[in-house]
Amino acid sequence: MDRQEYIVELITENKKKASDPTGATIKKDLFAKKGYDMITNVRSGQYLRIYIKAANEAEAKEIVEKMCNELRIFNPVTQDLTILKVSKPD
Amino acid sequence: MTIKIAVIQFPGSNCDLDTIHVLNNVIGVEANLIWHNHFKESNYDGCILPGGFSFGDYWRAGIIAAYSPALEEARKMLKDGRPIIGICNGFQILTEAEFLPGALLKNDSLKFICKWVNIKVENNSTACTNKMNLGDVLSIPIAHAEGRYYTDNLKELEENNQIVFRYSTESGEIIKEANPNGSIDNIAGVCNLEQNCLGLMPHPERASESIISPKKTTDGTLVFESIVEFIKRGFS
Lengths: 90, 236
Prior knowledge:
The complex is a heterodimer.
Chain A: E1 4-14, H1 21-31, E2 45-54, H2 57-70, E3 79-87
Antiparallel strand pairs in A: 1-2, 1-3
Chain B: E1 4-9, E2 13-14, H1 16-27, E3 30-35, E4 46-49, E5 51-52, H2 69-79, E6 84-87, H3 89-96, E7 103-105, E8 113-121, E9 137-144, E10 148-150, H4 154-159, E11 163-168, E12 187-191, E13 197-200, H5 221-232
Parallel strand pairs in B: 1-3, 1-4, 4-6, 6-13
Antiparallel strand pairs in B: 2-5, 7-10, 8-9, 8-11, 11-12, 12-13
């Protein structure tokens, strides 16, 4: 089968019930202090762009999801993982 | 009997040599520094995962070391009841490897905190606390950026007596002001259900000789003496 390269982009972030001091500090000590008091919440996360050879986009996403679960790319106790996008390289 | 304890060294470990020094020269047992790829559990009565920044703490503290061959070896020790202790980064590794419940998040202050704190003994029946009295307050230093203990199963931990140390005042009060990093319920150390595996953020190896203690205390030795006692009793 012809395998093509895909890009899977994902973020991990703390679950809502776990506090996120990085996001809170950006909101309180940067945005609010510089007048952006309309910002109601900021949550930080970590981003990965993974290049993968797969048969199609669905398979690329499936492999990355399986890998992330197996190898704890996100900590299930405290974090959620979101696949943002699957695309082909330019 | 000859007691042999392994101290596992990862790329980026620190205080590994301090731990070896304390075990060899203060406690008086044989301790070997073992590179993480070379560790064979069958040679040892117990093992210690030291502090530091294993694999640079890239992505998340402890996550890469959690997949080291050393953890597979240590898992055999965990299962047959030999003592395992994770200090600081070692604690982070043990939670990531799911030897211990919960997770260690960035300190509330987002700062690396290095200072002496007090911790209260909440469980003195574990492999690493049997030489302590319940309610004892130990003077011991912390040095970490990701030490905020978190669990979504606090009730279960309490019911199972898995909370081993809590940050406290010198007189043993468990209050917010004594909590250096925002850990849930002031938790500084937890154990597994079987109580042969302990993780703690403070560094007992840095608190085992009066010459380097501001209060001339040696409270850290109790952790290592407990391990030795546990081994002498035949792992019970």
